[in-house]
Amino acid sequence: MNLVAVGISFRSASVDLRERIAFTEPKRDQASGDLASRYGCEAAVLSTCNRVELYLARPEGEALPDANLLAEFLGEYHSIAPSDIRPHLIEKRDAEGVRHLFRVAASLDSLIVGEGQIAGQVKTTFEAARAVGSSGPFLNALYQHAQKTAKRVRTDTGISKGHVSVSSVAVDYVRQVFDHFGEKTILVIGAGKMGRLTLKHLQELKPKKILVTNRSPEKALAVAAECGGSAVSWESLDDALIQADIVLSTTGATEQVVSEKRYSSIRSKRHGRTAVILDIAVPRDFDPAIHDGETTFVFNIDDLKGIREQTLARRRTHIERAESIVEDECKRFLDEWGRRKNGQLIARLTQEFEAKRREVIEPLLGRLNGKLTEKERQEIEGAFRLYQNKLLHGPITALGEATRDGNGPALLEAVRRLFRLE
Amino acid sequence: MGITIACFGLSYLTALGLELARQARPVRSLRIASLVFGMAGLFAQTIFLIYHQPNPAIAFGSLVLLAWVLAVFYLYGAVHYRTQAWGLFVLPVVVLLVGLSFVFQGDSEVMGDWFSANHFWGSVHGMLLLAAAVGITVGFLASVMYLVQARRLRMKRSPLGGLRLLSLERLEAMNRRAINLAFPMLTVGLLLGFMRLPAVGDANAGWTAAKVLGTLGLWVVALVLLYLRYGAHVPPRRLAILTFAAFALMLVTLVAAHPFATVEGTR
Predict the structure, then answer these.
(1) Burial of A174 per CB tally in 10 Å (0-12, 13-18, 19+)
(2) Spans of all domains in chain B
(3) B4, B57, B93, B190: least CB-packed within 10 angstroms?
(4) Mutate to test the interface with A, among B147, B148, B153 (most CBs of A within 10 A)
(5) Has residue A62 got a pLDDT over 80?
(6) Residue A383 neighbours by CB distance under 10 Å
(7) B62 touches chain A (CB under 8 A)
(8) Is A37 on the interface with B (CB under 8 A)?
(9) Beta strands in A241-330 (DSSP E)
């Protein structure tokens, strides 16, 4: 195996550099092809908002470009001085490179551990490399195993459980309170960006009605048109709050919109119906004292972020197990690849030993012809075969171990020369 | 017949232990093992009921029959809501009822007489009250789960932490339906019982029997629950707490001596 993985990530470079160095899809495919033809190797380019990594592989014994050369390549592609890129590049070779890709695919090296997007991005990268013809047997096998590792980490650990985006956490909370949404009314107050994203998630619950209110009637109409709801006037806010089961508040108001006193008169008109208020505005639109945990549940941005932190903390408890899966799969891949690569040499070595054994045993059996019973003849043949296998056992095991330890090429060469397998 | 109360009681207890272990380590094998023990317990209890035919008019019979219905309820929930902590709530009640039935095991009356053509209305009365008891127990279980879930939401905890439960709305609906169904059965069962009371040897003693008074009290509590829900729109959390009282009163009523059973048992 001869692999190099060179790149930058959120750990080594600022967002500014990551943005400048990122590849669009066509540019990524072009870069994969250029790398492959320029350096005569297999190549794939992984480009996401958090990382840009180049994966290059070549048959053993042939040198691969190093980080300096690849900094020049990246600089040339993005018109940036290589010296601006080089200090941020991280270089991983051979087994380290394999481990790195497996960790990336399993989302262990992500900004948000356990996020699900990266596995898809790795898939797209290597499928694109295959489509442009820049990947070969090694990168294809490596990618297949990376996918397998990511899947195993996802299913065998709880690392990807729970949502971490504020809008998804908000919807999770609503789902813990309500079950049937076909008869629920959602009230949207304001038109903030985060609110629209959360509303998109809430819309997936297929509520009966969406009401939208805003200090600006035009904005209310625009949001209502966007989400298929009805606009209600700002003056009717209290009536809308009486109707609503789920409230999404996201105004830009500098002062509280609904005080505890104002809501208590609304509450008395709701006949004990449960309400969930998602107050994701900063500063908060609803007085936190409205949350009584009985019929009214208020979740503000801090609560939602707190839950997100709890989810992330739970995910972190699975990292150790996930790392051990990566280690296990890394070893398995190296063994499998080693066996595949050493297979040809081992076959030749076995053929050579087989031929030598016949050269010795056939004249001997010829000389003893007629003096041996069939059973004795078989025993002699069996003993020679056993001797041959015992002799072969040492070199074959050593080749496997050397491949795993990264000393494969030297030992392969030694075996070739020792047994004259040229 | 070698099957005893201990056989299925211990099976349910083991299933409960496995459910507890599953909370600490949520692996599939523990869930399956818990289900297997639950099913084994239910199977053994079914054989036991067929063989012994306990009289539902006496404490032992009513408790063991109620436990059987709840064991079915447990298995239904455990299969249907596989990710929820269903067993952790239902199994303790099943184990409690089996334990209580073990305590009241001494009575050896059989159901044959109770179900004979002569006592058709008596058996209808018994079955209705048993069904009402199932309703109140299910209402109680939904209430416990509701309060746990409501507390978690009140404290704003992550949905991943602690026990996984159904939504508040679903639990509230479960409680509401259980009480709504229990009330008419309790009413008709109670009326049938009152109609049969004059047939009891000492009618005055029958009216003041603990079981009769307890059932009457239970009916009043169920009525109050319905009024508070539909008339006063009391929040579900407070109704859940009142359902606890109904369940406690029901347990007391179940273990109290039955005036019919005493008379019929001596025939």
Answers:
(1) buried
(2) 1-111, 120-267
(3) B4
(4) B153
(5) no
(6) 11
(7) no
(8) no
(9) 246-249, 275-279, 296-300
Q: Which residue in A274, A307, A310 is closest to B168 by CB distance?
A: A274
Which two three-digit tokens encode residue A421?
């397998």
Half-sphere exposure of B124 (CA within 13 A, CB side): 14
| Tokens at A204, concatenated | 């997936």
SS3 state at A55: strand
Q: What is the ipTM score, two decimals?
A: 0.82
- Across A133-253, the runs of DSSP E, i.e. the strands, are 185-189, 209-213, 230-232, 246-249
Distance from CA of A247 to the nearest CA of B (A): 16
Q: Given an 8 Å threshold on Cβ–Cβ distance, is B150 in contact with A311?
A: no
CA distance A79 to chain B (A): 46
Q: How far apart are CA B138 and CA B72, in angstroms?
A: 12
CB-closest option in B155, B159, B237 to A176: B159
Q: Do B169 and A177 touch (CB under 8 A)?
A: yes
Q: With the CA atoms of B248, B249, B253 and B254 taken in that order, what torsion angle do they form, in degrees rounded to the nearest 10?
A: -30
* Residue of A194 and A197 predicted with greater confidence: A197
Q: Output Rg (C-alpha) for chain A, integer angstroms.
A: 32
Ramachandran region of residue A145, left (φ > 0), alpha (ψ -120 to 50) or beta?
alpha
Catalogue the active-site residues of A: 49
Distance separating alpha carbons of residues B78 and B74, to the nearest angstrom: 6
Contact A75/B at CB under 8 A = no
Q: What is the pLDDT of residues A213-246, one digit of tens each?
A: 999 999 899 989 988 899 999 999 999 999 999 9
Alpha carbon distance B70, B40 (integer Å): 14
Taking phi over 0 as left and psi of -120 to 50 as alpha, with beta for the rest, A2 belongs to: beta
The CA R_g of chain B, rounded to the nearest whole Å, is 19
pLDDT of residue B263: 42
Q: Nearest CA to CA, how far is A271 from chain B (Å)?
A: 6
- The 8-class DSSP code of residue A298 comes to E
CB within 8 Å: A295 and B235: yes
Q: Give φ, ψ of A82 to 5 degrees.
A: -55, -30
Topology given in CATH for the domain delimited by A166-313: Rossmann fold (3.40.50)
* Structure confidence at residue A183 (pLDDT): 92
- Contact list in B for residue A162 (CB cut-off 8 A) is 158-160
Q: Do B169 and A178 touch (CB under 8 A)?
A: yes
Residue pLDDT, tens place only, B176-223: 999 999 999 999 999 988 887 776 555 555 677 788 888 899 999 999
DSSP for B111-171, please give it.
Answer: STTTTSGGGHHHHHHHHHHHHHHHHHHHHHHHHHHHHHHHHHHHTT--TTSS-----HHHH
Asked whether the beta carbons of residue B167 and residue A299 sit closer than 8 angstroms, the reply is no
Residue A101 has pLDDT above 90, yes or no: yes
B152: nearest CA in chain A? A293
**Domain segments of chain A as ranges:** 3-159, 166-313, 342-418
The H or E element containing residue A252 is none
What number of C-beta contacts closer than 8 Å exist between A and B? 66
A299 contacts B156? CB cut-off 8 A: yes
Query: Is the pLDDT score of B230 beyond 70?
Result: yes
- What average pLDDT does range A356-373 have in this prediction? 88
Position B186 scores a pLDDT of 94
Q: What's the pLDDT score for residue A314?
A: 86
CB contact under 8 A, B168 and A293: no
**Which CATH homologous superfamily contains domain A3-159?**
Glutamyl-tRNA reductase, N-terminal domain (3.30.460.30)
Out of B159, B167, B236, closest to residue A178 by CB: B167
